[in-house]
Amino acid sequence: MKAGYGILTCLLQLLLLPWSSAGIRINNTTLCRDRLGYFPKDLFQVSTCSLCYEYLTDQSKKFVLNKPVNFRMLQTKPFYLIKKNDASCTVYPKHENQTSMSEVCNTLSSVECTNWSACCRAAWNCCERQVFDDPEDFCPQTWDGWNCWNYTAPGKTVTDTCPSYIGDTDSGLKVSKKCTENGTWFISEKSNLEWSDYTNCVPSISQLFRNVIIISIVFNSVGLILLLLAIYIFCSYRQLRRQLRIRIHLNLMVSLLITGVFTMVWDVAVQYNRLVNKKDDSLMHSQEDVCKSLHIMRRMTKATNFFWMLCEGLYLHHLMINAFVPPKHLRVYFIVGWGIPAALFTLYAILRKTIADDSLCWTLPLTGPERALEWVLVNTPSILCLLLNFIFLLNILRIIVRGMVHHPNEPTGFRKALRATFVLVPLFGIHQFCLIYLPSSDNQPAFDIYQIASAIINNSQGIVIPLIFCYFNGEVQSHLKSSWIYYCERMKEIDGARKISWTSATSRRTSLNSLNPEAGGISMTNLNPTGTNGAVNLGFEDTAKAS
């Protein structure tokens, strides 16, 4: 009899679960409420801890929920975690169960593990505080996924301090939650779930990424304009485009131009899109194939920049050690600049698709043995390009300084060395060494400074390179000056020809007007000296009389 009563009670609880968020009160101390409904305490603990993991680990999760998060669904079983690459591996996390917590924490950083564990404990504390005797027509006590809320009077908005485990929160800021006039918590139209306003809790990190995107777009826009004009100038003058040095500059600028285009598309279509849209609606999650294509093209073009910077260093170093005798052709440079990065990233895309983590637009860093794929095909080649260019720069400066020693009375030697350093550092990409160390996001000021500096340095090369090697170049300025003088002279000739044409036309009009009687010109009557009978006397009569 008792067993039958227990089964009946359980069935009644399950039947009431999907309606629990619609304002129906359940007076049962064995149940705890979150925004999805009422759970028995043991299931509540597992579900909320699993949901804490889902909400706090957007970019680095190795586990997924066993089912989608839907509102008012029949909760016959709790949420729990399933390992991404092994569906047979399931975890039912409870904050007091160190085995289950450790299994998940092993895939997280120490900070992420601490924050997740704190969220799980806060959810359980909320469950223990809940007493299901809420006043009639009040919004019920609940857990919203991050924070615990007491019962609230209808039409009132309540606030609480932002939870510390969200990460990157500013102290003193508040999260708010609205109780509607009918005694239910406000529901978002987008998610169809009860919604709390955490906008103020993470202004620093969201605003930081917005600022980074804006900086990137502005610098790339200016760079694209300067690069297009510089490429046009180099291609317009035969004397310039025939020089091997200029041809290498042209290829580097074309590479920077393509990189700028893909970076801008990535910033707008992927990064900014992710900031302003719900996760599932963003391009990163809804159109992964498009996102992966953009991601691989952006990274490949960035690598192409490094290889063309290496070509610049290789060419100049060749000139310095060979008494300024240029190479006979540039085939090797084209293979290094365009061929090697294309081959590396084609192989990377194939391997990433087949044997490595294929999720989330390939933006997550690889871990374990798969990490070697990232280092061998992506990071190491770019670092080698920078190291070789650094060696080239040191040797070039050594040659310049040695020349100063042999000519100690040369006053401009030191200035030449400084100028060479200033010019070659951005050309060789040596400034990229400033970005090797990435501060932890736990050190918020350092992390913010790094992100801003990285956005400026990475996206300013398209501005610096054309300025130094095109617009500030004396040879280019000479050609532009000659073209301007020629243009001005041509305009003077055209204006002179127009004036002559206008004067001639005016003279012709004046001549025609002189023959027009209506305009006061010469008439046939004016040619009759006697005016007799209106005839024209041309002197024939006198001639006839004389004869």
Keywords:
547 residues, mainly alpha, Hormone receptor fold, Rhopdopsin 7-helix transmembrane proteins, 3 domains, three-stranded antiparallel sheet, two-stranded antiparallel sheet, 59% helix, elongated, disordered C terminus
Walk me through what this model shows:
A 3-stranded antiparallel beta sheet has the order 3-4-5, with helices on one face. The protein has a two-stranded antiparallel sheet with strand order 1-2. It has a two-stranded antiparallel sheet with strand order 6-7. The protein is built from 15 helices and 9 strands. It has helices at residues 2-16, 41-56, 98-105, 110-129, 203-236, 238-241, 244-276, 283-286, 288-321, 331-354, 371-406, 413-428, 444-471, 474-514, 540-546, and strands at 31-34, 37-40, 63-65, 81-83, 86-91, 142-143, 148-149, 157-161, 174-178. Mean pLDDT is 80; it is low at 1-27 and 522-547. It is mainly alpha-helical. It has 3 domains: 13-201, Hormone receptor fold, CATH 4.10.1240.10; 212-472, Up-down Bundle (Rhopdopsin 7-helix transmembrane proteins); 482-509. The longest helix is centred in the C-terminal third of the chain and has 41 residues, at 474-514.
Write a concise synopsis of the structure shown.
This protein is mainly alpha-helical and 547 residues long.
